[in-house]
Amino acid sequence: MTDLGEPRPLSGMRVIELSSFVASPLCGLTLSQLGAEVIRVDPVGGAADVHRWPVAPDGTSIYWTGLNRGKSSVTLDLRSDRGRQALRDLVTAPGEGGGILVTNSGGRDWMSHDRLASARPDVITLELLGRRDGGPAVDYTVNAGLGFPAITGPTGGQGGEQNGGQVVNHVLPAWDVAAGLHAALAVVAAVRDRERTGRGRRIVLPLDDVALATAGTLGYLTEPQIDGSSRPAVGNYVYGTFGRDFPTADGGRVMVVALTTRHFHDLARVTGTRDAVDALESATGADFGTEADRYSYREVLSALFARWFAAHTTDEVTRALAASSVLHERYRTFDQVVAEGDLEANPLFAPLEQPGLGSYLAAAHPATFDGRHMTAGPAPTLGADTDRLTAEGH
Amino acid sequence: MTDLGEPRPLSGMRVIELSSFVASPLCGLTLSQLGAEVIRVDPVGGAADVHRWPVAPDGTSIYWTGLNRGKSSVTLDLRSDRGRQALRDLVTAPGEGGGILVTNSGGRDWMSHDRLASARPDVITLELLGRRDGGPAVDYTVNAGLGFPAITGPTGGQGGEQNGGQVVNHVLPAWDVAAGLHAALAVVAAVRDRERTGRGRRIVLPLDDVALATAGTLGYLTEPQIDGSSRPAVGNYVYGTFGRDFPTADGGRVMVVALTTRHFHDLARVTGTRDAVDALESATGADFGTEADRYSYREVLSALFARWFAAHTTDEVTRALAASSVLHERYRTFDQVVAEGDLEANPLFAPLEQPGLGSYLAAAHPATFDGRHMTAGPAPTLGADTDRLTAEGH
Prior knowledge:
Distance between the termini of chain A: 20 Å
Radius of gyration of chain A: 25 Å
Oligomer: homodimer
Helix content of chain A: 25-40%
Order of helices and strands of chain A: EHEHEHEHEHHEHHEEHHHHHEHEEEH
CATH architecture of the largest domain in chain A: 3-Layer(aba) Sandwich
Strand order of the largest sheet of chain A: 3-2-1-4-5-6
Shape of chain A: elongated
CATH superfamily of the largest domain in chain A: Crotonobetainyl-coa:carnitine coa-transferase, domain 1
Number of strands of chain A: 12
Structural class of chain A: alpha/beta
Largest interface: A-B, 151 and 152 residues
Number of domains of chain A: 2
CATH topology of the largest domain in chain A: Rossmann fold
């Protein structure tokens, strides 16, 4: 185990994670970074995600080691009564901060909340489901059924329509990420409650409901109920404000967002279009002091601004915008982010010696507490802690 | 205030939120659903997000009301000493669960952590930044600079390359969502710690670092460090496993994911391609029992499977797949999700009477605690609670 330094906010918590893929391992990793002891339990040989891509030249999974940093690893024969008892013993072991199970392998009577609560009444269990009925679902299927791919990607050019039956999947598994963070939050909320009341909790979190709740909160599922509309596909524009990508003279591309009137005035000034924008505003009766009209006239405005971007290199563009209030960023690829030294320059990242991968810059928890980042140690070797942590191992 | 029913896990917590846009209001909403009292403070007339699109016919913001459900609303003249003192008084008021500020309007000496801690030493502040250096950034600019748009969307057809300079923005502001949930988790972790140790915390959470930490954890920033590679653009395929969209005979489209060997065998059986898949495996020496080879041969396999999808209607396809283990979902639009009755059928959603919008089905917190969803009441009228909650209002 890594020396965790000063007590972290979740020190004393002990979480058993019977998990695979993204959401529940991310829950455990995040709790671990915040100071909890996290023990990942796998079947002997590993779960379905143990060799998942990307992999290093020797076959070590970059994915698995990234998501399981800082955890202990126990392997058990979960088809045997002894293995199942060992898991239950781990979860229900005494200790104020223990009695916590996070899993995406629920629906098994032998490790149900009630079964565990019969051994430790204040147990907290969090079961991550695909769908609330227990049916399977993963990030990409959830997103397909919800509606984001139908409004992502190039439009015919005018926007305001669905993409002619085309769909574009989001690459980032955002629902997995949101579910993992929701899971961590729900567990810590339950722990805080238990420390005051002694009460255990049975928490169930369906991935599909994470997506539906988020889309509902952000308005996507409210619009059709209020006025029958559905969020239109607007390509690379930002809905409801002024924002778009612009190609530059040297083949680069820059994302530009003008949320406020000040941003927008600065964008017109930098691109030398103030007179044209003012004339357009007068002639049309639009009010570019409102986000609504900046959005409504986005294509005319973009065509005006685009001339300046096309006439300047990416460096010239970013230098000029950096001297203004306009929100902007060059589009980059992951290897460019690494090659340009962003990780070395950011205290969020620190060298981690990971067996199978060697030393690389790994990210800490994204928040600082009193100015300090909280890191996690390397991922364990599968099963490395079985002997130490279970009677089964002896 | 809505009757919250039985005590919720965060009951007794009291959070002051000086916020706008997505991440920090989502933090407050989530804490409110879990039982905290959340008081949103705005400048008189509202913050920059008060009229944000989408809006209802009478101009009420669907966006603002969605993200601020269940909160109280206080408006203050934050340019005046009296208004600033009123904000500090709200944050530092006595009470075990109080003394908590969440804001994306940091960097102001008059409401700095140190200034607040001089009045209440155990204060917990969470400041959401764009960048860690205090510079501005929003979800779309962060994502552009990180690399996801460069590997999203259609490829030339062969995959394995960047998209020829094309970029596709993700529509879902996933970093805002992740930052809001990270913020809520960090605050609750700090509260749990304070209840044990009496210690306050100064938490800083940059949106850019949320994105970098997530991309790092998921391997996107590790691959370039290990072997110089960058995650390729693979269109609508899922990286590292078998998953893709397929068009159907009646113009529909279905997302299909076969994560495990069982899923994959079922997909070959349903599509009537078992013999062809077996022959392909023998002839090439591939092992379709591994995710790596199913991914590596994705284009050949997809072309085989696609014939069956193209020959069947969406209903036929989904019926056949539903009788198998294959993960799948029809692509839909947001209005289809609503029109097909998903919200009525899901206890996650309950009618909410929202002034300006009327009654609509609003989402609760996505997790159930002991079988119960936790809802939030309607969003407040701007400034409705100023008199009740501040001396300034009297």
